[in-house]
Write a structure and sequence with these properties.
Blueprint (H helix, E strand, L loop, with lengths): L1 E12 L14 E5 L21 E6 L2 E6 L10 E20 L8 E7 L9 E7 L2 E8 L7 E8 L3 E20 L2 E18 L5 E8 L5 E2 L8 E2 L3 E8 L4 E17 L5 H10 L4 H48 L5 H46 L2 E4 L1
Parallel strand pairs: 2-7, 5-12
Antiparallel strand pairs: 1-5, 3-4, 5-6, 6-9, 7-8, 10-11, 10-17, 11-16, 12-15, 13-16, 14-15
Helix pairs in contact: 2-3
Length: 383
Amino acid sequence: MGAAAGGGFGAASAPAPPPPPLSGRNYTNLLQLSPGVAGGNFNSLLQASTPAAAEGMDFDDLYEYKLKDRVTIRKNQSAMVPIVQSEIRAEKVSVWSLGHGSAHPLRGVWLTNTSGETLDGGNFGVLEDEIFAGQGLLDPIKPDERRLLSYATDLGMLVREAGSETPQRNIRVAIAHGVMIRTSEAQQKYTYTVRNEDASQRTLIIEHPVRPGWSLSQDTLRPEETTVSTYRFRVIIAPKQAATLEIKESHPIETRVELTNLTDDQLALMIKDGAVTAEVEQALRKILSQKDTVTALDSEAEKRGQEIESIYNDQQRLRENLKALKGSAEEKALTQRYTQQLSDQETRLDKLNVEKTDFQRKSADAQEQLDKMIEELAIEATL
């Protein structure tokens, strides 16, 4: 529905030459709304039938009003000149925002500038049934722009909000080029409960913040309007009744795991959380088994290396003892004994070096096979 509206008035004094263009910035508007009627009247000082005496022109972000006719003002007198007189659309609503700090919403008007002109900024007042209902401020409104304005506290409605979180839900797992990417989803739910104590049906606009990285779930009511920072949901509440709005949001979370660093404990936790499918579990177990093979071969090679080092240390001790025996009574007997030990150790060293080299070669082959398994593994599954 529409209502007559005036965008503002210019004041003038002193005689004669044509007055300069008026911006209309200091006008006072009254927005007149009747219960249950979508409409507004911005003309506070002149009747709706008074024609506008100015026309507007845009200059980038500025706007200029020019009087259509000359205005003559007598000495010691002043005049109010209508600048914009046009019908615009306005809907009576109430507004409540998350973080508002009060259980009572604000009374408001959802205004669409259908005048074809820019309405300059200023203050406005609201009348309901010829009774003052509140006032507020508005910024300049371009043609066809929609603006939600508030002007007073609405004592006829109460809003209660409660939020809750649900456990993360696993969505997808993908493996490629040695990296496993697990995608899960964090979820939050907000429940708005509205009570209408009025004797007539009411419309409430709930403003819910837009959070970076979060999106509305598919089963959430679509907002009537979305701005850069706010979702706006429309809720209709019957007289003396309550209504509920549930808003569910989700946020994707990615977890990356290098398969070369994968452990048995990590896989066990993934299985417990339902983060992998049977196919993925089987493929990962093969990789873990191959990693165990490489680890076992490396361990055997390391054992040989430790024994070789121990024999080298013991041989150093025997050689020092041989030096100390020279000229002693036990020299002959101990020399023969130590020489035999050194000979046995050399035989053992030859065997250990062969075994160590063999285990190192097998480990390198197993590692090469493991690298190939990891690189070639490519799986994508929905959980």
